[in-house]
Design goal:
With 68 residues, the protein is mainly alpha-helical. It has helices spanning 2-23, 34-39. The longest helix is centred in the first third of the chain and has 22 residues, at 2-23. The chain is extended and about 40 Å long. The model has no long low-confidence stretch (mean pLDDT 82). This is Tn3 transposase DDE domain-containing protein.
Amino acid sequence: MLCLHLLQICLVFVNTLMIQQVLGRPEWTDKLTVADYRGLTPLFYTHVNPYGTFRLDMSERLRLGHNR
């Protein structure tokens, strides 16, 4: 059970970083309303595949954090 909790916390952390990266772009400034911001949550999981094949590209890193 603790491993599942740790996995959920890691998922929320990565999702939060991805949301921050998208919202940091200037083109989103005028598109989102107050209701849109209120509806944002880092608990989405549609991009997670808990069963099946996982394709990893070990030569490429996730672009989280600093934009270079």
